Every structure is written in structure tokens, then in C-alpha cells.
Amino acid sequence: MNRFVKGTILGFVASASLAMAGNVELIEPEDAIKLIGNKNVVFVSGDDNDTYANNHIKGSVEMYAHHLHHSDIKGNMHCAPLYNCPKEAQAYIRSKGIRNDQMIIAYDNYRGPNATGVHSFFESFGHKNVKILNGGFDGIKDIDPNQIAFEKAKKDKKKLKKALKKAVASGDKVAEAQTKAEMAKFDAQMKALTPKLLIQAGEATKIAPSNYVINPATINKQYIAEKKEVKKAVDDIAKNGAKSKFVIIDTRSMAEIMGDKKMDNVARGGHVPGAKFIEWKRITDEDNKKSFKTNAELQKVFDKAGVRKDQTIYAYCMVGAGRGSHVVSALRNLGYKNVKVFTGSWDVWGNDMSLPIRR
Predict the structure, then answer these.
(1) Do residues 196 and 146 make contact, with C-beta atoms less than 8 angstroms apart?
(2) Range of the domain at 70
(3) What is the pTM (predicted TM-score) of this model?
């Protein structure tokens, strides 16, 4: 067997094993940067429009994670546990020009929630090749040679501002003219580099719609859940306490958990009874600007909270695609098998007056 065929087979087996294990596949900036501009790859920003307008990967599309779920004014998800009904989701994906045969690399600034929201959305609709950029657009910016040169020129120009101020104050016209000339050189350098930068500013460009198709046979509900499942878990936890075979994780801030802060005009503030509190910020590696801490660090977080691998785990936030999907992604990569995002999350639970809450 030649090396190419053997390598291809081994690669396929490795990928299949990874998928079977339930891992959420990450890609590092050093590998992702090589794929920017590749027509078979689409980078999808999960951040909001303002963030996208300030910083986005060149050629990427914007799909704000918070808006990927669609509930009515009463918080009802009409195709639960899916984030949206397939027909509407398909039309939305088509409007972004995304094709079925493309690799999707979901990203945000670097923290992880919005990227995992995009990942969870596409995975649930059966897209097979989805990765998360571990480090987001900040990771790309840090290693883009043109960005590095741009930042150096910017820094050097800033130093000259002090010299210019000093020359003006002293009345030294020669020094003033020389300093201005040097600053102009840096301005020209930055202007020339700007269109080459891999992280751009500005609104998304118009994209030709695609013919993306959501195949009902490949829709994947393995890692998403609706409120009926969560209510069953609430009842079991109330009955069996620490011995329950279920865990519910609230990934929001304490102000939201206590009901002091409400979002999206949800009728009630508070939290799901029996939920454990693991804020999403405990998942992100802030020190190294990565979407996830090391597996060893993450395992300590879940062990301390008493989350076991033999339990069925539901994580929720405001809408599910975001902080909830972030925690679920971390659990999956630690080998937890029965983990699900409660899609709709508090937007659904807080608006359903028949469901219990705690504050």
C-alpha cells in the first residue's frame, strides 16, 4: 500500500474515531491562518454585528450566536430541540453563501461561547465538517505577519508624536519637519498594509446565496435538548438529590442566576431548580487567550462541582447557543458522553409560567 493511500485511510479512521468519541474539534490559529481565502473553507463569526464590524477574519460571514435560536414572543421553540425549524435555518444558511461541502470554522474574539454556538447550530443540522478556532480572531491577529508589521509602524509613529510635541514646543522647525516626514512614512506603510491584514474592519460584503440543503435524515439531536427533558431532570434531582442521574448546569452570571438581571424581556428572572452554577468564564483560558483551559484545569472545575461522567448533563444560558454550548463543548472534550445544550434555555424556561423557578 503506498504512503498516500495509507495516510488517507489512517486519517479517515482517526477522524471517525474522534467523531465517535463526541469531541468538538478545535483548530489552532497556526493551522487556521493557512485556510483563509480557501474556497472550500468558510470562517463564520459568532459575534454580534458591532464586534464583526470592528474585527473579523477577512472573507468571513457573520452569524451572531445569540440570534441563531428562534422562539416566539412567549419563548416557544416550534421545532424544539432544534434551534430553528429546518426550512428557516436552511434559508438563513443559504443567505450567507455557505455550501454543504465547505469546512466551517466557527470563531469569536477568542473566549469561546459565540464560536461554540455556531458549532452547535451547524452540528445539529447535520453539517459534518465544523471546527472551532481556539483563540479566535485575536489568535490570527497575533501571528499575521502584516498585522505585526502594522502594529510596529503604529507603535513607532506613536513614539514620534512625543518628539513632534517637543519640537513644536521648542520652536525647532527643522526637527519638526523631520519628525513629520518620518511620521508620514509610517502612515504610508500602514496604509499599504491595511488591505493585506487578515483581520479587517467594516460591514460584511454582499454574498451570493448558495443552494445549501439540510437533509432531514442527517439532523443530529444528540447534543441538544428541549424543556421537557430538562423538566424531567428537575423532578429527578428534587427526588434523589446528589444521587440523581441528572445534572443541570447554569452557565450564566450570578446576577442572572439570582434574577437581578433579565435579558430579552423574558417574563421571569431566576434559575432552574436544582441547577449547579458553573459560569462560562471558568471554561475560557484568559491568560493564554484561548477558548478553553487545559483538560486538566477543566476537569478540576467539573469535579469540584460534582459533575459525574455517568450522569446526563444539561447546560443552559440565555438561549443555549453561547455560554451553554461552551460548557457542553468542554464536557464533550473531557469524555462526558451524555451532555446536551438546552436550546432556548432561559428564554424558554423563564417565559413558561407552568415551569418552576428559583431565585
Answers:
(1) yes
(2) 3-141+199-215
(3) 0.91
